Amino acid sequence: GESGTAAKNVAVVGAGLAGSLLACYLARRGYTVTMYERRPDPRTGKVERGRSINLALSERGLDALRRIDLDHSVMADALPMRGRMIHPVEGEPGFQPYSSDGERAINSISRGALNNALLEAATALPNVTAHFDHRLTGLDPKTGEMRFDTPHGAAEAQADVVIGTDGFSSAVRGQLLAHTGLTESLDFLEHGYKELTIPARDGEFAMDPGALHIWPRGASMMIALPNPDRSFTCTLFWPTGGTNAFASLSSPAAIEKHFAQVYPDVIELAPNLVDDYLHNPVGVLGTVRCSPWHAYGRVGLLGDAAHAIVPFYGQGANCAFEDVVELDRILDETGDDWDRALPEFEARRRANTEAIAQMALENFVEMRDKVASPVFQAQKKVEHALERALPGRYVSRYELVSFSTTPYAQVQQRVRRQQRLLGAAAGAVVLAVGALAAFAFRKGTGA
Ligand code: FAD
Ligand 1: does its nearest atom lie under 6 Å from the Cβ of 52? Predict the structure, then answer.
């Protein structure tokens, strides 16, 4: 493309988490950055109901913030969660630390506050402009000409480079689908999600705020993350349709009865349960895969727009932030040659985003089922003992994903190697025990 090294103006379509961070990074490189966001300015308007209110930020996301000195301001309101608190149907909740030393934590943070902090940082820079109430409806990938719907009618703009950070249902991706050879696949999960609230009780947290709470129930699962106002936001995951599903509960009595059976401790913790259940929307979840992520050295996709994943590893935003760091690094290496940078970005990120997409699906099974089993809990203890015995040599998958910046694809490979070793070790133990048993048997029978 003609944009090449001469690109000066970059349009960032979608001022969500990835878009506002990307604007900060690109502005630091000297670009004139214009952000276009479908919604009104979230710093003045009211927030939409039912988009995840809080999220878990871990090392990858923090690393991206640290590089531009935003970690302190963003982390001021974060609440560290050092492990999982598992709520069984009956009996007391049990705590499972995330790391072998019990100290490392993922951070519960308000999505709105994070987005506002990033927007604030971006728009404070002289070379960043943000246009809200601008929904992209058209894009010519060859020329960088864009069309938007605004409350005042249609608007047009043009940029040397256009980056789509417009999320799961990306309109930029839609335009590449219509005008270029891009192909996509959307794998929707049978499960959707609904948010419920556990308010503060007598001004205090109603549960331990130092943990991510999980109610693993097999067919369904609920989680809760703490908020700075001492409430918790719960997310209930359940199939959207069918008999054992969101759609199966419609009356207040049915809702109360279901929770009393499946989530009995929540009844008392969530006084607005019925109202939340009836009025909060059910969100869909899924994995987006598409290729290529770029066209004509001029248009690119980043974050959820390129590779949305299911939320069960708490990595979507972390991964999107990691995208920003990688693109910035590649622009450094290529001397800001977008013709080379956009394909290189995809070449480096694709295997990693595919790995986290897969690990996120696998973690759903772990969270909704396995965490409740005594065998799993014993395995976790063995794993933490191994980590302590072999520091830096045996590291759990959770730790590598959440507390390191080791590329996701390498995490997957390393965990497979470790599992083979563990399997071999366990196999050796089984053989030894078998040999002993056979020996004892021969002795016992006198054979
Ligand atoms: P988004 O945050 O979706 O931002 C896209 C932006 O583009 C929005 O502002 C949108 O209004 C705008 N836009 C859309 N269309 C247009 C258009 N046509 N024109 C202009 N603008 C447009 N991630 C984690 O790291 N940790 C977690 O714990 C976590 N929990 C999650 C829980 C749930 C229930 C869900 C659904 C997701 C969770 N995620 C989590 C994932 C995380 O929310 C996403 O990965 C992250 O928001 C992606 O950022 P993004 O900027 O790419 O997309």
Answer: yes
Residues comprising the chain, all counted: 447
Q: Is 297 in the pocket of ligand 1 (CB under 6 A)?
A: no
Q: How far apart are the first and last CA of the chain?
A: 82
Does the CB atom of residue 387 touch ligand 1 within 6 A? no
Taking a C-beta distance cutoff of 8 angstroms, is the pair 224, 213 a contact? yes
At 218-258, the pLDDT tens digits run 989 999 999 999 999 999 999 998 889 999 999 999 999 99
Q: Which two tokens stand for residue 287?
A: 């994995």
Task: State the complex-level ipTM.
Answer: 0.99
Superfamily of domain 4-79+109-187+286-365: FAD/NAD(P)-binding domain (3.50.50.60)
* CB of 13 closer than 6 angstroms to any ligand 1 atom: yes
Token readout for 114 is 């994070």
Ligand 1 centre to CA of 354 (Å) is: 18
CA–CA distances in Å: residue 1 to residues 143, 160, 194, 294, 296: 9, 10, 44, 12, 5
